[in-house]
Design brief:
Layout: E1 4-9, E2 30-31, E3 35-36, H1 39-47, E4 52-57, H2 62-71, E5 81-86, H3 100-105, H4 108-111, E6 118-123, E7 126-128, H5 132-141, E8 146-154, E9 162-166, E10 172-177, E11 190-191, E12 205-217, H6 218-224, H7 233-244, E13 247-251, E14 256-258, H8 262-270, E15 299-301, E16 304-310, E17 315-317, E18 320-326, E19 331-332, E20 337-343, H9 352-360, E21 367-368, E22 373-379, E23 384-385, E24 390-391, E25 400-402, E26 405-408, E27 411-414, E28 419-420, E29 425-426
Parallel strand pairs: 1-4, 1-6, 4-5, 8-13, 15-17, 16-18, 17-19, 18-20, 20-22, 21-23, 22-24, 22-27, 23-28, 24-29
Antiparallel strand pairs: 2-3, 6-12, 7-14, 8-12, 9-10, 9-12, 11-12, 25-26, 26-27
Length: 428
C-alpha cells in the first residue's frame, strides 16, 4: 500500500512467557515448529502489500536481529525493508522505552524519512490473519485520525484488554484499558449473537476489545505523541485522543489469539494439529513466511502418529507421537513417547566429533533420548534430554523452577540449551 509504513512493537521483558523469553525477545519465540512469532505480523503486512516495516525491540534482540536479517531480504528493484529499531541512546534521550506509545515516539526520527501518510502499528505477539487493506480503506473513508481493530470478547474476560464503547457510526466514544471490574464498562455490552460464526459461538454479552492494531494518520501521531502525552497507547494516548481526534473502530471477527502467557502459547501451538485449525497454515493464499533452511524431509521409522505436525529435518524411530508438534531438526531415539507437547527442535545437527564429545563427557545429545516419555510440555530449542526421562506434570501442578526447566500454568518448559540427565523425573 502506498504511503503506509508498519511499526511492529516487540514488547517489553515478556515476563509472563518466561523462561521462553529469557534468551530472546518475545517476537523471536518459536511458533508452529518452524516459525517465529514475528513472522505472523510481517506476513500479514506482506500479504497486504505493505513492505516498509520497522520492528521495535528492547530486550534480548540478538536472536530477533539474526532471524530478520536472514529472512526478509528484498531485491534492489523493490522499495521494501524489514528493519530492527533497537532501543538506543540519543542526544535527546538516554532512557529505556517506557511503553507502546513511547516506543513509537522515540523512533519517529527513523520513520519520518519514509514520508508516510499513515502508520500501521502492530503487536509482535499475536496470532491471526488480517488483510490490512480493508482496514486502511475504512480508515481513509471515514477520514479517521486513528482506527483501532476490535475483537469481541466475553465480558468476563474484559480485564485482559483495552475495552471500548462504539456509537452507531463506528466512532469510539469511551475507552478503558484493562478494567478491574465490569462496573467500569457497564452499558457497553453487545449481544454475542451479533458476532457468531461457524468457528466461534459466543454466548452471553460481549464487549469490544482492542487488538493492539492501530492505523494512525502520521500527522495525528506527531500531534498525539508530544513528550508529555504519556507512554502507553491504551492507558494514555487513546483515552485522550477520543476527545480531541476522530477515533474509529474496525470490527474483526476472524481468529485472533494474544500470546501473553505460557498457557495461551501452548494452546495456540497445539491448536495447529486440529483437523481444521482456525489459524490456517495450509491455505495456499496465506503463506506464513519464515527463513528458508534447505533441510531434508522428516525421516520416520516405525513411528505412530496421531494429530501431529513433524517439521523438516526431524529424525524419529520406533516411537509414538500424539497431539504434538515437532520442530525442525528434532531427533527422538527409539521408544520415545510424546503426548500433548510442543518440541521446538534444534538450530543445528551435531557432528560426529560432537557426538563423541558427548559420550566422553557423559552429556546427552541434542534431542530426546530413547525410552523417554514427555507429556504436557514445551521443549525449547537445542535441549538435551537423556534416556529414560519422564516429564509428566500432575493435574494442578504448582509453578516451580528446577535445573534446566520450569513449570508454568501446569505445563513443563524445558529451557533452551538445557541438559536433562538420564533417568530424571520432572517435576521432581
Amino acid at each position: 500500500m502506498d504511503n503506509v509504513v508498519s511499526v511492529i512493537l516487540g514488547g517489553g521483558r515478556g515476563t509472563r512467557l518466561h523462561p521462553l523469553t529469557r534468551p530472546r525477545s518475545k517476537p523471536a519465540v518459536p511458533f508452529g515448529g518452524m516459525y517465529r512469532l514475528i513472522d505472523i505480523p510481517v506476513s500479514n503486512c506482506l500479504h497486504s502489500n505493505i513492505s516498509r516495516i520497522f520492528v521495535v525491540t528492547q530486550f534480548n534482540s540478538a536472536s530477533l536481529n539474526r532471524h530478520v536479517s536472514m529472512t526478509y531480504n528484498f531485491d534492489a528493484f523493490r522499495d521494501g525493508f524489514v528493519t530492527i529499531l533497537a532501543a538506543e541512546q540519543t542526544l535527546e534521550t538516554s532512557d529505556w522505552l517506557q511503553g507502546t506509545a513511547d516506543a513509537v515516539r522515540k523512533n519517529l526520527w527513523h520513520i519520518d524519512p519514509a514520508n508516510p501518510e499513515d502508520v500501521l502499528i502492530l503487536s509482535g505477539d499475536h496470532i491471526y490473519w488480517m488483510d490490512y487493506r480493508a482496514m486502511l480503506n475504512m480508515h481513509r473513508r471515514t477520514r479517521a485520525d486513528i482506527t483501532i481493530a476490535t475483537y469481541p470478547v466475553p465480558i468476563q474476560d474484559s480485564s485482559r484488554f483495552g475495552i471500548m464503547q462504539v456509537n452507531s457510526e463506528g466512532r469510539i466514544i469511551e475507552f478503558k484499558e484493562k478494567p478491574e471490574t465490569t462496573k467500569e464498562i457497564d452499558g457497553w455490552e453487545l449481544s454475542g449473537e451479533m458476532f457468531r460464526t461457524k468457528e466461534r459461538d459466543l454466548e452471553g454479552p460481549v464487549v469490544m476489545a482492542s487488538m493492539g492494531v492501530y492505523m494512525m494518520r502520521y500527522g495525528a501521531i506527531q500531534e498525539l505523541l508530544a513528550p508529555d502525552t504519556g507512554s502507553d497507547f491504551g492507558k494514555h494516548v487513546i483515552p485522550r485522543a477520543i476527545h480531541t481526534h476522530k477515533v474509529y473502530a474496525y470490527p474483526f471477527n476472524g481468529y485472533w489469539e494474544d500470546i501473553g502467557t505460557i498457557e495461551s502459547y501452548y494452546t495456540a501451538n497445539l491448536a495447529l494439529t486440529d483437523p481444521q485449525p482456525h489459524f490456517a497454515l495450509y491455505d495456499p493464499a496465506l503463506r506464513l513466511f519464515t527463513r528458508p533452511r534447505f533441510l531434508p524431509g522428516a525421516s520416520m521409522r516405525e513411528v505412530y502418529l496421531k494429530r501431529a505436525m513433524v517439521c523438516a529435518g526431524s529424525r524419529l524411530e520406533h516411537g509414538s507421537i500424539e497431539h504434538s508438534i515437532l520442530g525442525t531438526r528434532t531427533v527422538a531415539k527409539a521408544g520415545v513417547r510424546l503426548i500433548d507437547s510442543v518440541v521446538c527442535g534444534a538450530d543445528f545437527y551435531e557432528t560426529s566429533e560432537q557426538l563423541e564429545y558427548n559420550r566422553a563427557s557423559d552429556r546427552p545429545d541434542v534431542g530426546i533420548g530413547g525410552d523417554t516419555v514427555i507429556r504436557k510440555a514445551i521443549v525449547d530449542k537445542n535441549a538435551r534430554i537423556g534416556y529414560n526421562v519422564r516429564i509428566d506434570p500432575p493435574d494442578n501442578c504448582p509453578d516451580s523452577d528446577g535445573d534446566g526447566y520450569a513449570v508454568r500454568d501446569g505445563i513443563v518448559i524445558v529451557e533452551k540449551d538445557a541438559i536433562i540427565r538420564d533417568g530424571m523425573r520432572i517435576p521432581v
